[in-house]
């Protein structure tokens, strides 16, 4: 299990999902790549709450993901709520899509298509382990 592989695969899934409607068109803007980070305290707190991990468990979460566990497995082991994890990630990605729409990097049609795929993509991601 290699965390770099997990991050690369995850980034590729996001890029292909959100950039999928633009493959046949010339790139006018570079697509922003979402970066996973535990430095954003508010987001981390919500995720740790949903997983039922203590607020000082950033390293514990990182280690579990590094060991190949899925977010579902982590939630199950700690009595967390996987639906809250999915809802949180869908909310955060929807905010990113809204920012991209407002910034003009995607149009309304792309926004609608990408938003329609969010829940399915997040659910698959949360349920997948990389062991």
Helix/strand/pairing class, anyone? mainly alpha
Give the percentage of residues in beta strands. under 5%
The number of helical elements comes to 6
Based on CA atoms alone, the radius of gyration comes out at 15 Å
Number of strands: 0
Q: What is the overall silhouette?
A: elongated
Give the helix proportion (percent range).
Answer: 55-70%
Element order: H for helix, E for strand: HHHHHH
* Residue runs with pLDDT of under 50 for 5 or more positions: 20-41
| Overall tally of structural domains | 1
CA distance, first residue to last residue: 6 Å
Oligomer: single chain
Overall average residue pLDDT: 76
Features:
mainly alpha, 131 residues, elongated
Task: Break the fold down into its secondary structure elements and pairings.
Layout: H1 3-19, H2 41-51, H3 58-66, H4 71-78, H5 82-103, H6 108-127
Walk me through what this model shows.
The chain is built from six helices and no strands. 15% of the residues are buried. It is elongated. The N and C termini lie close together (6 Å). The longest helix has 22 residues, at 82-103. It is mainly alpha-helical. Helix 1 packs antiparallel against helix 6 (108-127). It has one domain. Helix content is 66%, strand content 0%.
